Amino acid sequence: MVEIKSPPCEWKQITHFPLDTILDTFEIPNWQRVLSEVHKGTICKAILTNDFYDNAIQVYKIQNGKQKYGVCNGQHRLMALWHLNQEFGVKEYEIVLQIFDNNPARDVFVRFNLGKGMSLGDITKAIDDGTIHFFNHLRDNYNHKATKTGTSFTNLLHAIKFAKDKTPRPLHKSTVRHFIMGISTSDMTYIKKFTRCINEVSEYVPQSFTYRAPIFRALFRVGYDNEHLTDKKFKDIIKAVIESPKAKQLIKLPNGTEIISFVYQYITNKLCDRIGIPVNKPEVIAYTTRPGDKNG
User: Fold this and answer.
1) What is the DSSP string of 16-40?
2) Which CATH class is domain 10-108?
3) Is pLDDT at 294 greater than 70 in this prediction?
4) Among 93-107, 127-141, 164-178, 208-222, whose mean pLDDT is lowest?
5) How far is residue 244 CA from its own chain's centroid?
6) Contact criterion met (CB below 8 Å) for 17 and 78
7) CA torsion 231→232→238→239, rounded to 10°?
8) Strand segments (E) across the chain
9) Do residues 242 and 208 touch, judged by C-beta distance below 8 A?
C-alpha cells in the first residue's frame, strides 16, 4: 500500500519579523502572477483591523542569492506587509514560513493557487522552468499569454486535447503538467506541421478569425485525424475555412464549447467534399441547418 503523506517541509515561526527587511529577505520569482493591487489592499485592511488569519508564507531556500528565500505562495501577503511598513509605519508582524526544497517550488505555487482564479496561462508560465520539451520547442510561435506576435499555449493545449480525446471540453487546470508530459514525439512533429501551415496561410494577428478557439482547434483536429494530408492540401483546407461564410456563421452560435465540434463537423462533412479533399468523417453534423442553406 502506498504511504500517503504531505510533501517534506520545515516550519519556522517568526514572532517579530522586521517588515523593513522584506525585500532583502524574499525574492518574488518571475513565474508568479502579476500583483493585484486590489487583493493587496484587501489584505492590508484585514491586517490593520486585526482580522487577518493567513500569515503563513510558502517559500524555498535560495542558494547563493542576494535574498534568503524565494516565494512559492504569499507574494500578496508580503507586499501588503511591505506597504504597511512603508506607508503606515508598521514595524513588525508575526509570520510563519513553510520552507520547501527548491525543486517543487513551482508546483507548490500552482497547487496553492488553483482555487484562486489562476488562468491556464498562469499555470503554464509557472511550470515552464526551461526543462520541458514542449515549451522549449514551440516558444518561437506560442506564448503563455496571447501577444501581438503569437497565440497562447493555452489555445494550443486545448486544441491538442480536442484532437486526442475528441471532446471540446477544456483541459482541466489540475492536469496540465501531466497532460503536457504525455505529448509524444509524433504529436510534436504534427504540432510543428500544423503551426507551419496555419502561419503560412494566415500570419498571426491578435483577435484574427483564424486563431479564434473554434477555428484554430477544429483545424488542428482535422490535421491530427488525417495524417495523409500533405502541407499543400492542409493549407488548402485552412484557406477554405477562413473564406467560408458558414464557418463565420457557426462561431456566432450560442452553444459554448460545442461550437468547436460544430466547426469540425462542418469542415469534415461538408467543406472538404466541396473542395475535393477527402478526409475522415468520424462525427455526423450535430448543428441545426436552416432550410435552403446551401453552405451546409
Assistant:
1) EEEGGGHHHHEE--TTSPPPPHHHH
2) alpha beta
3) no
4) 93-107
5) 29
6) no
7) 150
8) 10-18, 26-27, 56-61, 69-73, 92-100
9) no
Are 264 and 283 in contact, with CB atoms under 8 Å apart?
yes
Span 41-58, average pLDDT: 93
The full set of domain ranges for the chain reads 10-108, 119-274
pLDDT tops 80 at residue 44: yes
Q: What H or E segment, with its residue span, contains residue 14? A: strand 10-18
Query: Per-residue pLDDT averaged across 141-159, rounded?
Result: 93
**From the CB of residue 40, how many other CB atoms can be counted at a distance below 10 Å?**
19
- pLDDT bracket for residue 273 (50, 70, 90): very high
C-alpha grid cell, residue 233: 492540401
**Of 291 and 40, the one with more pLDDT:** 40
CA atoms within 13 A on the CB side of 208: 19
What whole-number distance in Å separates Cα of residue 48 and Cα of residue 189?
56
Q: What is the side-by-side strand order in the sheet with 26-27? A: 10-18, 92-100, 56-61, 69-73, 26-27
Which residues fall within 8 angstroms of residue 154, CB to CB, at 6 or more apart? 119, 120, 121, 124, 144
pTM of the complete model: 0.72
Asked if 163 and 221 touch (Cβ cutoff 8 Å), the reply is yes
